[in-house]
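User: Can you recover a sequence for this backbone? Please restate the input before giving your answer.

Assistant: Of course. Working from this structure:
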């Protein structure tokens, strides 16, 4: 157990101190280090996979690449800043204005992740409900523009907590006293109520997607003369199920954090319980950032094979090896790389 130091009630003007004892601080950091390393290394692996292997750079995988960037930044930037904010008591980490800026990367990256989950859900809906027109509707250029838009939106929304209009920017916020900035209150309400609602709507959307897939299943499976069409559908469904796993994991690990603000306001009576709940909830959200690379490797043969190839090569940051010797599975979401080539006489007709 961490021993809380006697100077947690440090007030403005005093020297830098720790919220917990030195031993407790070492334990606190030691618990976070494996999470940071797994988050950074796992998502770096996904980023390298997308960059090095052309057959992984499919339209739907652009969202995976974007999420990997967000999660990589979470582990390399947001988490270290958050740890220092929780442990160190100083004028920088305890004044309302500067403290909000130190948490800014976490706010922005969280908002961007939520936006990308929405984009992935819409992409999967189009892929299942409009299979014939999917590659017309979701081109690389459109997908790139969508990702840029959601990054910009996530940045704008994530910066709301640093807009301290109508409040005291020098308020001391390291104790049990709650920061009373109106815009931060709105942000807390969003985190407590809007995020669970948002996730519920996305889950309902996936229920609708799988319902549409169920209705189309018989038509696809009974198409004996169009084997390529059946393979294409199976690959598309596998990608959709993988996306559902990503959303489900995000939901499980983020829901406790959504109710953290309620606990802080109504239930936390001392600094020990306050830090305990903050650590627990935030740790879960950070764990979700390294779960996605695991899900990709588990569900996607291309990513799994690429992981192995990258890890075997010491020169993983050099692209001097030909890609045909690298990891490149034979099928993708369209199910038409090698299968279509070997069946050039078979025309793939996908009915609506």
């Amino acid at each position: 157990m961490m021993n809380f130091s006697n100077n947690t009630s440090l007030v403005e003007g005093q020297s830098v101190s720790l919220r917990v004892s030195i031993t407790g601080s070492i334990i606190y950091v030691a618990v976070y280090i494996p999470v940071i390393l797994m988050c950074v290394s796992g998502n770096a692996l996904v980023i390298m996979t997308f960059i090095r292997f052309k057959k992984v750079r499919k339209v739907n995988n652009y969202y995976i690449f974007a999420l990997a960037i967000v999660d990589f930044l979470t582990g390399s930037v947001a988490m270290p800043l958050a740890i220092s904010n929780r442990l160190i008591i100083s004028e920088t980490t305890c004044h309302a204005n500067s403290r909000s800026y130190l948490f800014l990367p976490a706010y922005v990256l969280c908002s961007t992740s939520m936006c990308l989950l929405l984009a992935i859900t819409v992409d999967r809906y189009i892929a299942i409900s409009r299979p014939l027109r999917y590659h017309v509707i979701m081109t690389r250029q459109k997908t790139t523009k969508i990702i840029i838009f959601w990054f910009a939106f996530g940045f704008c929304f994530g910066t709301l907590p640093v807009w301290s209009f109508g409040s005291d920017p020098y308020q001391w916020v390291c104790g049990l006293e709650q920061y009373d900035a109106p815009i931060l209150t709105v942000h807390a309400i969003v985190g407590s109520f809007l995020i669970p609602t948002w996730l519920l709507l996305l889950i309902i959307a996936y229920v609708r997607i799988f319902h549409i897939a169920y209705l189309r299943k018989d038509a696809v499976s009974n198409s004996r003369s169009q084997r390529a069409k059946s393979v294409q559908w199976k690959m598309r469904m596998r990608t959709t199920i993988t996306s559902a796993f990503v959303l489900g994991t995000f939901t499980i690990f983020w829901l406790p954090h959504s109710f953290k603000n309620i606990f802080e306001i109504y239930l936390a009576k001392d600094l020990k319980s306050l830090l305990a709940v903050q650590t627990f909830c935030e740790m879960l959200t950070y764990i979700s950032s390294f779960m996605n690379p695991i899900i990709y490797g588990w569900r996607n043969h291309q990513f799994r094979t690429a992981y192995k190839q990258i890890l075997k090569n010491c020169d993983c940051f050099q692209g001097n090896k030909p890609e045909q010797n690298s990891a490149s599975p034979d099928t993708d979401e369209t199910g038409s790389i090698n299968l279509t080539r070997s069946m050039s006489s078979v025309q793939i007709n996908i009915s609506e």
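That completes the design. The two ends are 60 Å apart (CA to CA).
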